[in-house]
Amino acid sequence: MTTEITGSTDATTLDGAVDQARADVEEQRSRLAQWEAKLAAAQHELESLQGRAGVELLEDPDAEEHIATTIAQLQARITLASKAITAQRPRIVLAESAYLAAEADRLEAPLAGVQERIEAHEAKTRKLLAQLEAHEGPYVTEKVHVQEQLSRDVVWMGGPPTFKVPKSELMRAEAQVARRQLSVLRELAAGRDPRPMISSWGLSRSEAYPECVRGAEALVHTPAFLDSVAALRRQVEELEEVRDGLPGRLADYQRQKGLHTPGENDETYAEARLRQRIASIDGELDQARADLAALTGSEA
Length: 300
Hints:
mainly alpha; 9 helices; 79% helix; flat
């Protein structure tokens, strides 16, 4: 009973640390957003004032000092907001690192108990196998038996048989996945990209990355996720640029064709390809936007 209470208390403490770290990340990001909003507002106000300053001075020459003072104040606000933004960004990085470290601590806590259960299970297995072999003789698991037959090129009429994986092997595999996910979190918390480490494991993304950093809803995104989003955004931008330029390219081609072959009405291969591209690019753009929306959980 004491162990259960202690374990529960430890879990509650770790959960509280994660919640506090998450709240700190959100607070630091909120502060950044406030300064970014102040910067954008001051920039907009400055651009607007500079745009209408000439007319205002013609209407009221005495407004020159007021306008100059206001412009100077806005420029100072822009400078200060920019400096605050620059100073705030490292605080977000530190908060994110602390959050990832807290998540790693929470993931690591039960691993010692998992290892103890594996060792206890395997000790019991060895004891039972010793009793079985004393009673029946040498024993191998169904998996080992099938694999030995496969290695001897045994052929089965209905294909190779299935086999049950020993429970201890499944337990060890699950523990290994948890330890690797812990390593990924520690790498992320240290500000390092875990992909070089993951590439040697041969795991799927869902196995390599713990749930807390997966998908668009994660508080802190992995470098792999950010790279995927950036690549899709570039794809959308490039497709938009191509789409916007295609009508002009077609018009230029038709104009040049008319200059060199007056009276020629037959559509050339290049012209047909341009028309085909114009007809297909909206579909490509819609698909790229849908892919981006699916990845980020929002409209592209």
